[in-house]
């Protein structure tokens, strides 16, 4: 964790959250930033029918809630996807920290720029790529190489989690993965997805 962020975390209050605990609710007035010390958070949007789309995942050394610096409503909801410990820092403490640590202010600006770029790329993907292409990109981005030339995804991704990230139904993800498995492109080993060979450009 960068020194300036660690110093900010030390000025906050540590809180523990159970799996599925809601830390931030979209639309509410927020005044705190959550720095992840252990565990993992998920930022997401949902509609009145309960459908969700995952915006991002955040692990140790990352933080969420900084969009509330302008005093506006929360732009997304955030929940714990596993038991998580956060340092919760108030808006006032964060502003004081920024004034005292210009390097952290620069890092915050860079983070916001990166988030804007990711949002642009996500919008482009949703508008211009079909569901299979979005699935292919996610699998390739999350996978790591094995000695035998295959690739594996260390985290356990449920079909619903994948669907929430790429913006489609769980049934569509299940069907595509089943087709890829039957085609010899993917397999499940020890509850992990394994990419046996390069995925086809189109399906």
Written account of the structure:
- By secondary structure, the chain is an alpha+beta fold.
- Helices cover 38% and strands 26% of the residues.
- The protein has 6 helices and 12 strands.
- It has helices at 3-10, 91-100, 102-128, 131-142, 159-166, 170-182, and strands spanning 13-17, 22-24, 32-38, 41-46, 52-58, 63-64, 77-80, 84-90, 144-145, 151-152, 186-189, 192-195.
- Strands 1-8-3-6 form a 4-stranded antiparallel beta sheet. Strands 2-7-4-5 form a 4-stranded antiparallel beta sheet. It has a 4-stranded antiparallel beta sheet with strand order 9-10-12-11.
- A hairpin with a 5-residue loop joins strand 4 (41-46) and strand 5 (52-58).
- Helix 2 crosses helix 3 (102-128) and helix 5 packs across helix 6.
- The relative contact order is 0.13.
Mean pLDDT: 89
Q: What is the count of β-strands?
A: 12
Q: Would you tell me the structural class of the helices and strands?
A: alpha+beta
What is the CA-atom radius of gyration, in angstroms? 19 Å
Assembly state (oligomeric): single chain
Helix share, percent = 25-40%
Biggest β-sheet description: 4 strands, antiparallel
Shape: elongated
Counting H and I runs of at least 4 residues, what is the number of helices?
6
Low-confidence stretches at least 5 residues in length (pLDDT < 50)?
none
% residues in beta strands = 25-35%
Largest sheet: spatial strand order: 1-8-3-6
Element-by-element helix/strand order: HEEEEEEEEHHHEEHHEE
Distance between the termini: 41 Å
């Amino acid at each position: 964790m960068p020194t300036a962020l660690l110093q900010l975390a030390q000025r906050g209050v540590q809180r523990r959250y159970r799996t599925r605990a809601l830390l931030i609710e979209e639309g509410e007035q927020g005044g705190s930033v959550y720095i992840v010390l252990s565990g993992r958070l998920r930022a997401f949007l949902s509609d009145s029918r309960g459908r969700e789309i995952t915006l991002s995942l955040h692990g140790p050394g990352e933080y969420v809630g900084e969009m509330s610096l302008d005093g506006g409503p929360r732009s997304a909801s955030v929940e714990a996807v596993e038991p998580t410990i956060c340092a919760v820092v108030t808006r006032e403490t964060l502003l004081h920290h920024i004034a005292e640590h210009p390097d952290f202010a620069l890092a915050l600006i860079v983070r916001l720029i990166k988030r804007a770029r990711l949002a642009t790329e996500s919008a482009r993907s949703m508008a211009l790529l079909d569901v299979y292409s979005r699935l292919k990109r996610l699998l390739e981005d999350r996978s790591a190489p094995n000695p035998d030339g295959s690739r594996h995804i260390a985290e356990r991704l449920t079909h619903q989690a994948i669907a929430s990230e790429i913006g489609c139904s769980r049934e569509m993800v299940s069907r595509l993965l089943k087709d890829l498995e039957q085609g010899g492109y993917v397999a499940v080993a020890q509850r992990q997805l394994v990419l046996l060979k390069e995925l086809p450009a189109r399906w």
